[in-house]
Amino acid sequence: MTPRFLFAAGLAAAIAAASGCVSIDRCGAENLEGLSINGTNAKPVEHIVVSNFGYYLFNMFPLVSGNANPDRWFPISFFSDQVKLPKMQSILAAEVQKHHGLELAELTSHYDSSPCFTVSLDVKSWFGILFCYREVQLSAVLVEAPPEKEPGVAEEAGAAKVPEAIAGVEAGTEAGKEAQP
After folding, report:
1. pLDDT, the chain, mean
2. Which pLDDT tens digit goes with each residue over 17-61?
3. Nearest Cα to 161, choosing from 153, 46, 27, 39?
4. What is the pLDDT of residues 92-132, one digit of tens each?
5. Domain ranges, ordered by start, for the chain
6. Could you tell me the CA-to-CA distances from 165 to 98, 105, 114, 141, 160 in Å, in that order?
7. Alpha-carbon distance 109 to 140, whole Å?
8. What is the DSSP string of 14-53?
């Protein structure tokens, strides 16, 4: 093997190892059996977690992240800020829309931004914040509404319809506050 090939293979492996990732994780009803959702007596059907992470220069300029675009053809996005809550909300909404007749409950989000590594020197150094890691997660429980439910009862009890809850988290409205724990 030539040194160029080994260098190219090593570089490709390093980029793949350091790249971001969009993931959708699910936990089915069998793992949620016996659990109850706060403020409602609806039956939990599935727990969904949507997340994305990436790396940034000075925590401002995107280097590489998971590709969160719905029409993506490549899982990695270079120099594009894909680690954002609205992008994760659209992915979660698309996943929830696949389950007709279910409602969204316990909608929570998590955002993390931190230096990839720190340099401990006696002199203050900006090098420790050169490369930063950023991650956003959105978690929700899909619930089956009781058949005898009256209009508006689920919203008052802590569960909300998908568009209302997701838009509410971003805007800070009552529907979003009710969907969060």
Report:
1. 74
2. 555 678 888 888 777 777 777 777 778 888 899 999 998 888 889
3. 153
4. 888 888 877 788 888 899 998 887 765 555 444 555 567 78
5. 21-179
6. 17, 8, 28, 12, 6
7. 9
8. HHHHH--EEEEEEE-HHHHTT---TT--PEEEEEEEEEEE
Res. 11: pLDDT tops 70: no
d(CA 135, CA 94): 20
Alpha-carbon distances, residue 34 vs 29, 31, 39, 87, 108 (angstroms)? 10, 9, 15, 32, 21
Q: What's the CA gap between 70 and 84, in Å, rounded?
A: 14
pTM, two decimals, is: 0.66
| pLDDT for the residue 86 | 92
Contacts of 132 (CB under 8 A, 6+ apart): 55, 56, 57, 58, 59, 113, 114, 115, 116
Distance CA 37, CA 31 (A): 14
> Rounded to an integer, what distance in angstroms lies between the CA atom of residue 35 and that of residue 177?
21
